[in-house]
Specification:
The structure holds 2 protein chains of 2 kinds. By secondary structure, chain A is an all-alpha fold. Chain A has one domain: Methane Monooxygenase Hydroxylase, Chain G, domain 1 (Up-down Bundle), CATH 1.20.58. Chain A has 4 helices and no strands. Chain A is flat and about 65 Å long. By secondary structure, chain B is mainly alpha-helical. Chain B is 68% helix and 0% strand. Chain B has 15 helices and no strands. Chain B starts with 6 loop residues before the first helix and ends in a 5-residue tail after the last helix. Classes of the chains: A mainly alpha, B mainly alpha.
């Protein structure tokens, strides 16, 4: 990748950021904040909010995140293979993906991918 | 001293300054995606309504065409506030990040090339094109893949229970479907030996469309893309009956406008990438210019997404995750292993250049 493409990426990020910030600041010119306790409280279907929003969440999300990290590395390793050596050297990618599939199968059989 | 400013002079000045040149490319991309998003929103409301035997917007403008402008103006004059429980800095920055990242994923889509090819070649040097670089597909998916982080931050920072649950669901869904998405586009990469969308489209000029050559990858890519865009069979993240509006429940005014806009920019970018990977991007019969072909194909793909939204009910979260891990990942991985053989056969029979 040549140097100029980095400038293109920066320019896209710059334009997106400037337009986003502008959209956030324009209404502050027209409107005056009139906060009330009801307006600033979190929406819970019209009821009074109960407790804090920093609640405990399922461990299941954590398991999926860990599985994702492991498999995403496999996928990231498959990218250079696909670009450079897609027609030759099948063995490494077959082994890699076979290991990944075996792990998904094991996960699945153990029931860790079930949504409890 | 001649200080006359001419059109050619301005063009040469912009062309020589690399920052101005790419800013111009970004502005062109922004104009295209704005028009695209407006058309998408109109299709979403009108076409969906017609399928459900409703009328959709009718009052503002002819056939309700100006309804979207009216909505945007209304968003702009809404009061700006942050909930008391919110983490204010992150809460205010998340919509900006979301729209920035979605917009940056348009970089790799060769709209700028199709716009440049509208002009006579003396007026546009090929340097105008920003999308023609080697790992352009990788860069686009890099920006695409930042969304779960933003969603997670947004849901957590808004300080509501619905937003938190919506954020977690969203992140779990987006990361689960990222793996089949990447595995299925890799089979196209094996066929073309390139991560450059430009190159991938050019290869399809001399071969069968990859929607035929890599049919299983096309199917898995479409399903995974539906989930990545959080569109209806997989819109658990904003399941209205359970979570009000998911992670963006607490966002109002222009913050909601930005979140909503970034969703449609992502849909536009996703449809355009699908078209470039599997349906030959800007390629098409001559009298219609490449820009119109690419735009038209993208809008048609989006219309099919709306059709799917109208036709299918929402899946449950366990069905959604089981589909991702038990079906899409194995199918796309097995197809990726088979792809080199398919490429070999296709080359022998002249289906792939």
């Amino acid at each position: 990748m040549a140097f100029v493409e980095n400038i293109a990426i920066l320019m896209f990020l710059f334009l997106g950021g400037v337009l986003g910030l502008a959209a956030e600041f324009i209404p502050r010119l027209f409107t005056k904040p009139r906060p009330t306790p009801e307006k600033l409280s979190p929406f819970e279907s019209g009821e009074d909010p109960v407790g804090t929003a920093r609640i405990r969440f399922r461990i299941q999300y954590y398991i999926y995140a860990v599985a994702f990290v492991a498999f995403d590395i496999v996928v990231a390793l498959a990218i250079p293979w696909a670009v450079g050596w897609g027609y030759v050297y099948w063995t490494p990618i077959i082994l890699l993906l076979a290991v990944m599939l075996a792990v998904v199968g094991y996960y699945s059989a153990k029931g860790d991918l079930e949504w409890i | 001293m001649n200080t006359q400013i001419t059109l050619t002079g301005i063009i040469i000045f912009v062309e020589r300054n690399v920052y101005l040149r790419f800013l111009l490319v970004a502005i062109v991309a922004f104009i295209i995606v704005s028009i695209g998003s407006l058309i998408e929103l109109y299709i979403e409301r009108k076409f969906w309504a017609r399928i459900m035997s409703r009328y959709g917007p009718t009052e503002v403008g002819k056939f309700g065409t100006l309804q979207l402008i009216a909505d945007a103006v209304k968003f702009l004059v809404k009061e700006d506030f942050s909930p008391a429980a919110a983490d204010k800095t992150i809460y205010n920055l998340v919509p900006v990040f979301s729209v920035t990242v979605s917009f940056a994923s348009l970089l790799a889509i060769p709209f700028d090339y199709t716009v440049a090819s509208l002009f006579p070649s003396s007026l546009h040097p090929l340097t105008f094109v920003a999308s023609n670089f080697d790992p352009s597909l990788l860069v686009a998916f890099g920006f695409f893949a930042l969304e779960p982080l933003i969603v997670l931050f947004g849901g957590w920072a808004a300080g509501g229970k619905y937003t938190l649950i919506g954020g977690f669901r969203s992140a779990a869904q987006l990361i689960s479907y990222e793996i089949p998405l990447v595995l299925s586009f890799l089979s196209v990469v094996v066929l073309t030996q390139s991560l450059n969308l430009f190159q991938i489209i050019r290869t399809q000029a001399h071969s069968w469309p990859f929607a035929v050559l890599a049919f299983p990858a096309f199917i898995t890519f479409t399903v995974a893309l539906l989930a990545e865009l959080e569109r209806t069979p997989f819109d658990l993240t904003e399941a209205d009956t359970e979570l009000v509006s998911g992670w963006n429940t607490e966002y109002g005014g222009t913050k909601f406008l930005l979140v909503y806009l970034s969703e449609y920019i992502r849909a536009f970018a996703g449809s355009a990438i699908l078209v470039s990977l599997f349906f030959g991007g800007w390629l098409g019969p001559a009298p219609i210019p490449p820009l119109i072909w690419l735009f038209l194909k993208t809008i048609i793909v989006f219309t099919v997404l709306v059709w799917i939204r109208a036709a299918y009910p929402r899946v449950r979260i366990d069905q959604m995750l089981a589909l991702g891990w038990r079906i899409l990942i194995p199918v796309s991985a097995v197809w990726l292993i088979l792809t080199p053989f398919v490429a070999h056969l296709a080359m022998i029979h002249g289906a792939l250049a």
